[in-house]
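Office hours follow-up: a student asked to see two folded examples consecutively, so here they are.
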Amino acid sequence: MKGEKSIMAKQSFCRKHTVGRLKFLPLGLLFMFFGIGCLYVGLHPDEGDPGYLRWVALGAGVFVVLIGLLECFLSLRDSLFPSHSTLAKSIRSQLPDPENAPPVKELFEMVDNDVAEAKWFGKVAVGKEWVFGDEGVLISRIRGVFYKIDTHYYNRKRSVTYKLKLVDDRRQLHVYVLGSEQTMMDAYNYIRLLVPESWTNNMDALLALPEEEFGAFNRDFCIKRDKRIQQEAEQAADRAEFPQDIVLYQLDGVSTSRVSAKLVTEQLDTMEQNEQFRLQLLWDFSLPHCGTMKTMTCFKLPAEGYWIVTVYERPDGSNAAWGKAMNRDGALDCLTHLLRHEAQDPVQAGWNAVEVRAAPAQSRQEAFKKLTIEQANGLRDEYERFTRADVEAAADGLADETYRAVQLFLGSWCIMIHLEGDTALVHATKPCPDKLRFYSTRARVSQATAWLLQLMDGRLDPDFSKWKDETDEMERTILQQNKDGQA
């Protein structure tokens, strides 16, 4: 499939599309032939035919001939004169200054470069900047994302059309016909992820907005989009500077592996007396006389002081810890250096040896992590040290069916995804005040992988009320296993 896409890009998506319009030339000729036949009947009526039939035949003949001429004209124009094609016009209409658009060759090269890296949904390509099918629309101009399933009956035969509909910032409607409901929904969800600020509730309501209200919506859209892009740029810069192989247990108890200097600074500046947050390493930093570092914890002291404690695991399995009191700048410098894989030797730096206390039950529970991947051939791999990039790779493996099952455990939270045809069977746990609850549902693969990444980010929050609650059944199973000695 990837080879076919790269070949399509090399052959120029735009030229292939415009030349492909020639296939409609026979259809236009057929309309003209049929229309000429109607004209002949109208001009040479039989003696017994009623008079009105002649005018019906003439009217139908003229109408059908005009349709045929138009189809032939558009087919020849698009294929022989690509600069005047429907595709070229749609591309120009999306540019900031359509009147001063570059020549068609440069237009098509711009599109082909984007299509070369695009994600395909049937005959629709979604690149970094454009969505292309029979016409193109800039992703930055999209304001509404919708889908519609049209069902028609003819001679008791049912036909279904799946349409993806995009509305741009000028309220122009762009319609793409897709081959199946799954392809349509995959394209719809993918574009929604690219444009999360878009209107998705009711297309007619968006198109019917008064000009002032649409202008207000558009301004609000741009503010939210620019803020998101800025945040994504900051996060990308943080990921480039800080490897994503540390788990931060925040002040509110939520854990995340998307740790940045900004996030650590926020924790440090919002701490109150006796509060703490912890960094847990997923990479090995070892010192011969200390062991392997496991955690670095920051405690808030009275006044403006902070207490930084590092815990190391020795080769014999015992733990040792060192601590040092610091001011705000010293604590921040120590924590951010750890994010860059730069840690001080506590002994050489003169830190104080401190007593290691057992972690609370909840902390030990939160520390449990495991990622299990089952490949398409049935082989299973388990990881207890992994990063968000590893979970993203697992999600991609589910999407392209390299993997058939993925399980992610983070303390009491868990999500298990198993592919079954074009959908996924999803099981998840949710710690509640009364008990640990178990849920299951069926979902699209794209939705299931989105939940997988949400859990890794510490914010799994689907509407569990729409899931099947399997808590009672699971408790009975666990109770029976306990009786049988299998737990």
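And the second, which I mentioned at the end of office hours:
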Amino acid sequence: MIPAKVNAELQPQSSIIAGIAPYLELAIVPPSYLQVTNPKQGTLLSGDADVSFSAQWLFSRDLKNHILTSIGAGVEFPTGSPALAAPAPVYSLQMIGSKGLPDGFGLTYALTAKNFQQDGSRTTTLSPTLLGTYLSPGSFLIAAGAIVLPNGKIPPFVQASQLLGRHVQVNLLYAGFGSGLVNITNVGAQFLPTTLDVNGSTNVFGASLALLLGRSGP
């Protein structure tokens, strides 16, 4: 069971990711359709998600030890449907690190701070994430790990991505606790770890398509 609202922390939304300068990329999230359904209750939520903009800067490269560190900042505007829109702009700041390991394996770790309005006042939350990754020679990426949500829940999740050519990426996502069932349909979406304000156990499944433009990094 989930209440009639999606938590504004991290929503799966469509993304256009553009490399606009060396080591700098911009992510634009246009309006996209989001639907949340449950087999017992039918469609719980549907409509347009919020628009957001974010930038990520790769500011540290330790090539000897295969360590990359980035900082990101973003803003989400309350432009979505009433049940899905945040009540006020949501601001975010993120530190992301990755450690390359032999044979295509790696570790990714992140800490995300979000400032948003809740119950008439603004609050700030921190969400750490830890992922193990594998990147094949054919540009197939699989990532598995967990994110610590502001409500204290720690849902495991797995995401698989396949790059088609240079500018199209297909993504599949599962996140949840192994019982209950919630399906999310998000047309043309680049999935982030999905946060639902849940009561009890929930599973989330998603598929998405991302458009990659320009080039950033070496």
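Two things to take away from it. DSSP finds no helices and 14 strands in the chain. The two ends are 46 Å apart (CA to CA).
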